[in-house]
Amino acid sequence: MPLSASEFQYVSTLVRREASIVLAPGKEYLVEARLIPVARAVGAESVAALLAELQRRPNVAYQRKIVDALTTNETSWFRDREPFTALTDVVLPQLVKSRASTRKVRLWSAASSSGQEAYSLAITLQEALPPGWSYEIMGSDISTEMVKRAETAEYSQVEVNRGLPAAQLVQYFERAGAHWRVAPSLRRNVSFKLMNLTSPLPSLAPFDVIFLRNVLIYFDVETKRSVLRNAARLLRPDGWLFLGAAETTIGVDDNYERVTAGRTSAYRVRSAASVGAAGRG
């Protein structure tokens, strides 16, 4: 049986409050399917029984499990490939010039799920940066379970088959039983944090590049605007922001300007984008 209207309202209100994700009517079957494993894990007879118990006696740990289950964690290695190509061909050559004094770059993989994007960025930098350069990558996610998985850095054969070239699997991974573990040469440059993008963000050093992809599509306009403003505060004035193919800042936050980056687009704080465009003209 699908969730009742009151059960769905409880879940949608919880997820909206904790993660700012909008669950529109019509998602009842999806929510039911995602919560069946949660109900089993906590010993509830059914999803309905779990929700009834939570409405009688709120349990923060169980509520967190519900939010985690309903956070979309679709990911793969080098997902949508073009942003990584743009990073190699367009962004890094400019950063190598502008960061010559420090020879270091910082990237943020926001909503990094189980870590594939963050480690894909590490592989990209490992291969594209000149000798003597260093890099730091921070991955973040709202899901406690996903952050733990990313830190463990172990992936099944099915997971590494999703977008990871065989040559890079051999070079940057090592066997861990039936799984593959990211090699220390990459892991030492990557860290992960539990972070809700819609809440006030912690004090962090600024980033040269932010990958904030396939996240904004789950938020309403005001939440999108808030997330983009938070990202701008952590982006260096001449930094680069990459969004998902179906996402844009246009009509949401005028502080950004969309710029061409190879065969895809990126976003820059408007003053920096204007200066860069003038320099290329």
Give an overview of the whole structure.
- The protein has 281 residues and is of the alpha/beta class.
- It has helices at residues 5-19, 28-41, 47-56, 60-70, 82-98, 116-128, 144-152, 157-160, 166-172, 184-187, 221-233, 270-280, and strands spanning 104-109, 134-141, 154-155, 173-176, 179-182, 190-194, 207-212, 235-243, 256-261, 264-269.
- A 5-stranded parallel sheet has the order 6-2-1-7-8.
- Helix 11 (221-233) links the parallel strand 7 and strand 8.
- The termini are far apart.
- It catalyses: L-glutamyl-[protein] + S-adenosyl-L-methionine = [protein]-L-glutamate 5-O-methyl ester + S-adenosyl-L-homocysteine.
- One of its GO terms (molecular function) is protein-glutamate O-methyltransferase activity.
- Keywords: Methyltransferase, S-adenosyl-L-methionine, Transferase.
- InterPro entries: Bact_Chemotaxis_MeTrfase, CheR_C, CheR_MeTrfase, CheR_N, CheR_N_sf, SAM-dependent_MTases_sf.
Sequence-ordered SSE layout with sheet pairings:
Blueprint: H1 5-19, H2 28-41, H3 47-56, H4 60-70, H5 82-98, E1 104-109, H6 116-128, E2 134-141, H7 144-152, E3 154-155, H8 157-160, H9 166-172, E4 173-176, E5 179-182, H10 184-187, E6 190-194, E7 207-212, H11 221-233, E8 235-243, E9 256-261, E10 264-269, H12 270-280
Parallel strand pairs: 1-2, 1-7, 2-6, 7-8
Antiparallel strand pairs: 3-5, 4-5, 9-10
